[in-house]
Amino acid sequence: MDQVQKQSEERMKKSVHALEEEFNTIRTGRASAALFDKIKVEYYGNPTPLNQVATISVPEARLVVIQPWDKGIISDIEKAIQKSELSVNPSNDGKVIRINIPPLTEERRKEYAKVARSMAEQARVAVRNIRRDANDELKKQEKDGELSEDELKRAEDEIQKLTDKYVEEINRALESKENEILEI
């Protein structure tokens, strides 16, 4: 019974963490190195994460500076950024790439907020699926005689409390991300 709860809580934590990681890739009006986490650059024939071939820094609120460790791939980095869904225009001086992050239009903000809500809903569904799996496992244990009816009820209540806790965390993360996206 305790094992099922521990495993469920661990999986729910991972769902919330994955959501927060996904939220980092949604552009807001501010510059952030996390925006470039999903960008891959062709490096010696292999798609390589940008942060493994360059230093990404944010010296100002609306400016990102990318300094490749190998100057020979600066144009590849520039192409990868232009191909990405970030809608930003990199400028390169031969040594570093500078990217001004323009403020988002109202329409774009609403679109990103909608994407964030969709991601949050997927995370809530994942947490509920974990609850269902845990309850199925507990019912199986009761059927096999490992748990009494009272223990089953108590365990199901604990699983529900965990579910409520992590759904609430998801809602708080969404609210925070929406405020960040919609702030001007």
Q: Write down the overall mean pLDDT.
A: 88
Distance between the termini: 49 Å
Structural class: alpha+beta
- Strand arrangement, major sheet: 3-4-6-5
Number of helices: 4
Portion of residues in beta strands equals 15-25%
The radius of gyration is 22 Å
Major pleated sheet:
4 strands, antiparallel
- Ranges where pLDDT stays below 50 over 5 or more residues in a row are none
Total count of strands? 6
| Dominant shape | elongated
Q: Indicate the percent of residues in helices.
A: 55-70%
In N-to-C order, the SSE pattern is HEEEEHEEHH
What does this structure look like?
With 184 residues, the chain is an alpha+beta fold. 57% of the residues lie in helices and 15% in strands. The protein is built from four helices and six strands. The strands form two sheets. A four-stranded antiparallel sheet has the order 3-4-6-5, with helices on one face. The protein has a two-stranded antiparallel sheet with strand order 1-2. A hairpin with a 2-residue loop joins strand 3 and strand 4. Helix 3 (106-143) runs antiparallel to helix 4 (149-182).
